Structures are given as C-alpha cells and as structure tokens.
Amino acid sequence: MSLATFVLRYLPPSPARVLEIGCGPVGDLTYAIAAAGYEIVAVDPVAHAGPLFRPIPFEDFTEPGPFDAVVASLSMHHITDLTRTADHIVDLLVPGGRFIVEEWDRERLLDEATARWYFHQRHAAAATGLLAGDAPLTPRFEDWRRSWLADHGDLHGYAAMRAQLMAPFRERFFTWRPYLYRYDLHESLEPLERALIEEGAIQATGFRWVGELDPPS
Ligand SMILES: C[S@@+](CC[C@H](N)C(=O)[O-])C[C@H]1O[C@@H](n2cnc3c(N)ncnc32)[C@H](O)[C@@H]1O
C-alpha cells in the first residue's frame, strides 16, 4: 500500500484540518492529502514556497490548532527532542485526534545480513544507473558501515520513538514493513525486500503507526 493510501485510510473523514511535519522539498504527500479535500499545512525547513507550506522547523511552528490529525513521514527520526515534539503535537490535536507516522528503525540496519543486503543493493543499483541520493558508495562493506555509523549516530531509532514520541497516544495501528528500497534505492526493490523479510532473511526496517488521543471522558 502506498504511503498516501495508508495516510488517507487513517485520516478522519474530510473536511478536516491536517498538519504534516517534515514534508520534504517536493510535498507529494501534502498535495495528495489536499487533493482528497483536506485543509493541510505542511512544515519543513526545506519546504518550497506556496500557500500549503511553511519553510520552518516544527519547533518554530506557532500557528493555532486544533488539528484533526498530524502526519509525519520519515521526519521524526531527525527531530532533536522527541518528548517536546510529542507534547507539541498533543497540544495541537483535538481530543480523539490522530497522529499518523511512517518511519524506519536505524537499529535494525545494524543487523549483519540486513546491512550487507542493503550495501550490495546499492552497488547493484549503481551498476544499473538506478542509485539515488549522493551518499558515498565505498567498495568495502566494513568501510561503508563505519562511515554510515559515524554519519548517522544522531538519528532516533524505534525504541526511542516508541518511548518518547508515541507514548502519549493510544495505538490504533502498527506494522513493520520494507523501507530500504526507499533509502536511495528504487521502488522496484520493494517486492524483493518484502519477500526477504517474510522469509526471515533480512529485518524489516520500516514501520507504520497510527496513534490516537483519548477523547475527553
Ligand atoms: C527523509 S526526509 C522525508 C521527506 C518526506 N516526508 C518523505 O517521506 O519523503 C526528512 C525530512 O524531515 C525534515 N525535518 C527534519 N527535521 C525537521 C524539523 N525539526 N521540523 C520539520 N521538518 C524536519 C527534513 O528537512 C526532511 O525534509
């Protein structure tokens, strides 16, 4: 299921007010949510200009709530303070409001088989001209892993997000899923990554989660 389909499935019915955190420079998901009839505001320091977008970090977002839902795709692992972010989201949501998250767990990429599979897929992608992004591609696995760890030590993993970001919400949905195909690789690898996860050959590094604020009692 595509990211947009997942998000639209768990949003409350439109019309409703949605905040997206970390929409990226393109805003694909923002436009998909707007096209489905929602009023949406998307914040990201690299957001482009336009009425839907605010080119600021979420920490500087001061527009009044409430919002019926908050959506974040692959931005929460970058956020500096997860607990303050959770508090800010709780303050902005209506009672019963949803927090819809697409994320991945850096700790699972430390699994040997998963890391080796990803490393070799990047080399295969480079050989076929399908490598995305500008991350360095070293010839030796050990060198790549050392430099990846040095460059990505500050990212939050699943355990931290679960404990600090997701804790105030009642869980409505959770699943592990493929992610690495999206990590500077190619959409066409998703079925292979999924099959290897199902066979237990590599770890599922991606997850989707939906939390809900308790309505007033
Ligand atoms: C990996 S990209 C994901 C972009 C897009 N949501 C996607 O799914 O492809 C992470 C995004 O989070 C944004 N981001 C990082 N820290 C942020 C913050 N404090 N507030 C808002 N956005 C942030 C980055 O600028 C970047 O565009």
CATH class: Alpha Beta
- Helix and strand string, N-terminal first? HEHEEEHEHHHEHE
What would the CATH topology be?
Answer: Rossmann fold
- Strand-residue fraction? 15-25%
Number of strands: 7
Spans of at least 5 consecutive residues whose pLDDT stays below 50 are none
Strand order of the largest sheet: 3-2-1-4-5-7-6
Shape: globular
Number of helices: 7
In total, how many domains does the architecture comprise?
A: 1
The major beta sheet can be summarized as: 7 strands, mixed
Report the CATH superfamily.
Vaccinia Virus protein VP39
Helix content: 25-40%
- Classification by helices and strands: alpha/beta
Radius of gyration from the alpha-carbon trace, in angstroms: 18 Å
- Which molecules are bound in this entry? S-adenosylmethionine
Report the average pLDDT across residues.
95
What is the architecture at the second tier of CATH? 3-Layer(aba) Sandwich
Description:
The chain has 217 residues and is of the alpha/beta class. It has a single domain, classed as Vaccinia Virus protein VP39 (Rossmann fold, 3-Layer(aba) Sandwich). It is 33% helix and 21% strand. It has helices spanning 3-10, 28-35, 82-92, 112-127, 141-151, 158-165, 190-198, and strands at residues 17-21, 39-43, 53-54, 67-73, 93-104, 170-177, 206-212. It has a 7-stranded mixed beta sheet. Helix 3 links the parallel strand 4 (67-73) and strand 5. Helix 3 crosses helix 6. The radius of gyration is 18 Å and the shape is globular. The site of S-adenosylmethionine has 16 residues, from loops.
